[in-house]
């Protein structure tokens, strides 16, 4: 999946960054170009930045610490990403807590010993979970909702040293080279953390962000598009056989959407799927052909074949209604399909480097191409688009 990000040309990325608006600034500065944040604040970890860079961080004198114990609450639908990081000796010894496939993953490096362990229940169910991390002698313990989730034991042949100096903590990123970890994972996480209690201390945290984005009070699974940006993939990564064509599937309440749901730009005809919140229908356009259709269910399937474009809506797996069939007058279209761009939530421009507009406002519950769910964290994505959650 990482090929999605690498496949998008740098010039398009630059154009996208310049063309789409970001957010304003607010917050309390500390005189060093950074904003101070309470450790107990509610923090949205998916905020746009370098994906490995922590969103907030703090540094503590080890002499001030009486107990190595921290707790916080986590809520996410995202199966993968960085949650919490800590280190001593400026990153020589370190700890990382993340999710992978929804399951907690702890990676620790201390005294030349590298340990990785994963287990416990999946936490990406959209509910608030209380996590507590503590150091208990030779063991690092992760408790989830009051029960042991993971227990890691470490013992080195080297004599135990008395720690001194500083300890660094971070949320949403790491302060070491990612290649030092045994298990690699995608770091960006659509998640919220709140009610942090860090080593029983009340020190402020810092962030390089001009402001911290808020978390929705209630969420449901999906990708939310607020009408200010889109996510772009290179179509060459979607493997297909010419005789079977290419299929894209979209789930959501189309009557509540407004703007471009999907656009595909290739050397051949341009394809767009646009929702109109006023008329409660969607317009399918392929080249010069346009058809307005009313979608009465929440699953739409578009199949590109060598001689036609077929649009279906499904009540369930056993009942399918064909909404429209558009003949293809460009017989080599599927060959050109490999050399284009697919945008979710916006209209790709007509020029080579032009980024269009007509951004989608609404929630797509699921997006699938060639039977594979799209993870928008792996796209060139505007910072306003959330990858795994929508406001409920």
Automatic annotation (TrEMBL):
* Pfam families xref list: Laminin_G_1
Q: Which residues form the signal peptide?
A: 1-27
InterPro entries for this protein: ConA-like_dom_sf, GAS-SHBG-PROS, Laminin_G
For this chain, one GO molecular function annotation is: steroid binding
Which SUPFAM superfamilies would you find in this protein's record? Concanavalin A-like lectins/glucanases
Annotated ranges, domain Laminin G: 40-215
Query: Where is this protein found?
Result: Secreted
Its quaternary structure? Answer: Homodimer.
Role according to the record: Functions as an androgen transport protein, but may also be involved in receptor mediated processes. Each dimer binds one molecule of steroid. Specific for 5-alpha-dihydrotestosterone, testosterone, and 17-beta-estradiol. Regulates the plasma metabolic clearance rate of steroid hormones by controlling their plasma concentration.
The record ties this protein, via PANTHER family, to: LAMININ G-LIKE DOMAIN-CONTAINING PROTEIN (PTHR24040), SEX HORMONE-BINDING GLOBULIN (PTHR24040:SF3)
Entry protein name? Sex hormone-binding globulin
């Amino acid at each position: 999946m990482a090929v999605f990000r690498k496949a998008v040309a740098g010039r398009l990325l630059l154009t996208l960054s310049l063309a789409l608006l970001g957010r304003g600034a607010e917050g309390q500065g500390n005189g060093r170009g950074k904003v101070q944040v309470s450790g107990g604040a509610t923090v949205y970890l998916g905020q746009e930045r370098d994906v490995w860079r922590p969103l907030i961080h703090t540094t503590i004198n080890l002499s001030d610490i009486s107990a190595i114990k921290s707790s916080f609450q986590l809520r996410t639908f995202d199966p993968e990403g960085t949650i919490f990081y800590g280190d001593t000796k400026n990153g020589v010894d370190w700890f990382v807590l993340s999710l992978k496939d929804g399951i907690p993953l702890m990676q620790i490096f201390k005294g030349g010993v590298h340990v990785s362990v994963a287990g416990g229940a999946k936490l990406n169910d959209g509910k608030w979970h209380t996590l507590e991390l503590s150091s208990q002698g030779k063991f690092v313990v992760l408790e989830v909702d009051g029960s042991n989730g993971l227990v890691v034991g470490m013992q080195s042949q080297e004599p135990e040293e008395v720690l001194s100096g500083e300890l660094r903590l971070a949320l949403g990123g790491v302060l070491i080279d990612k290649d030092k970890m045994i298990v690699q994972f995608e770091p960006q996480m659509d998640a919220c953390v709140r009610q942090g209690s860090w080593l029983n201390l009340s020190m402020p945290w810092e962030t390089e962000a001009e402001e911290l984005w808020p978390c929705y009070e209630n969420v449901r699974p999906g990708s939310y598009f607020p009408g200010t940006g889109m996510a772009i993939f290179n179509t060459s990564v979607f493997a297909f056989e010419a005789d079977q064509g290419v299929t894209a599937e979209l789930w959501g309440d189309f009557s509540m959407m407004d703007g471009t749901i999907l656009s595909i730009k290739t050397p051949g005809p341009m394809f767009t799927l646009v929702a109109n919140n006023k008329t409660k229908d969607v317009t399918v356009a392929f080249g010069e052909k346009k058809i307005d259709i009313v979608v009465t269910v929440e699953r739409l399937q578009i199949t590109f074949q060598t001689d036609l474009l077929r649009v279906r809506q499904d009540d369930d797996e056993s009942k399918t209604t064909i909404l429209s069939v558009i003949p293809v007058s460009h017989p080599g279209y599927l060959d050109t399909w490999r050399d284009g761009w697919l945008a979710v939530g916006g209209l790709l421009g007509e020029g080579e480097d032009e980024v269009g507009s007509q951004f989608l406002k609404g929630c797509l519950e699921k997006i699938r191409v060639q039977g594979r769910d799209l993870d928008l964290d792996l796209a060139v994505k505007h910072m306003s688009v959330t990858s795994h959650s929508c406001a409920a």
